[in-house]
């Protein structure tokens, strides 16, 4: 899959990454849209709380296999 990855302070790249594997009690979501929130924009500017490499975009809309 492709993901927006925080690779260095002030830098993000659209990269091919492995599909995540859900753990116990979790389910996979096919993402149809994703957003970047204010805290991610803040973290993008410098390395600190967010350490590269990090897939960005935790605000999503999508579907599961259950619909």
Give the helices and strands, then pairings.
Layout (H helix, E strand, L loop, with lengths): L1 E7 L2 E6 L13 E6 L2 H8 L8 E2 L3 E5 L4
Antiparallel strand pairs: 1-2, 1-4, 3-5
Give the biggest beta sheet.
Answer: 3 strands, antiparallel
The helix-strand sequence is EEEHEE
Average pLDDT over all residues: 87
Helix content: 10-25%
Strand order of the largest sheet: 2-1-4
Helix vs. strand class: mainly beta
How many domains? The number is: 1
Extract low-pLDDT stretches.
none
Strand content: 35-45%
Question: Helical segment tally?
Answer: 1
Query: What does the overall shape look like?
Result: elongated
Any idea what the radius of gyration is? 13 Å
Terminus-to-terminus distance: 20 Å
Number of strands: 5
